[in-house]
Design a protein that fits this description.
It contains five helices and no strands. It is mainly alpha-helical. It folds into two domains: about 40 residues, no CATH class; about 55 residues, Orthogonal Bundle (Globin-like). It starts with 16 loop residues before the first helix and ends in a 5-residue tail after the last helix. One of its GO terms (molecular function) is metal ion binding.
């Protein structure tokens, strides 16, 4: 995402490391892992956290492309990959806050 002109403005930190860490902690918590994300940041409130940014269909598609590349690198079982991808596509759709 560091080089993505559409998505990069949504990550104001110069170093994307903290954003990546937040995503990892959120997904770990979502799938039943430790509550480190909520302990550090409170309730996820994903839609609220994305309100300052224009999230349209193009941003949705760009984010999912990056997630698809990342998921493909994980080497998950077919079942786990399908479950994760179903959630990511649902989450991406729910973040849209602007018409195309």
């Amino acid at each position: 995402m560091a080089e993505d002109p559409l998505l990069r403005p949504m990550y104001p930190e110069e170093d994307l490391g903290p954003a990546e860490e937040r995503l990892v902690l959120f997904l770990m918590q979502y799938w039943g892992g430790p509550t480190t994300y909520s302990d550090n940041r409170g309730h996820p409130r994903l839609r609220m956290r994305h309100v300052p940014f224009k999230v349209d269909r193009a941003a949705h598609d760009a984010w999912l492309k990056h997630m698809r590349d990342a998921v493909d690198e994980l080497g998950l079982s077919e079942e786990h990959e399908a479950t994760l991808w179903k959630y990511l596509t649902y989450a991406a759709a729910s973040m849209i806050n602007s018409p195309d």
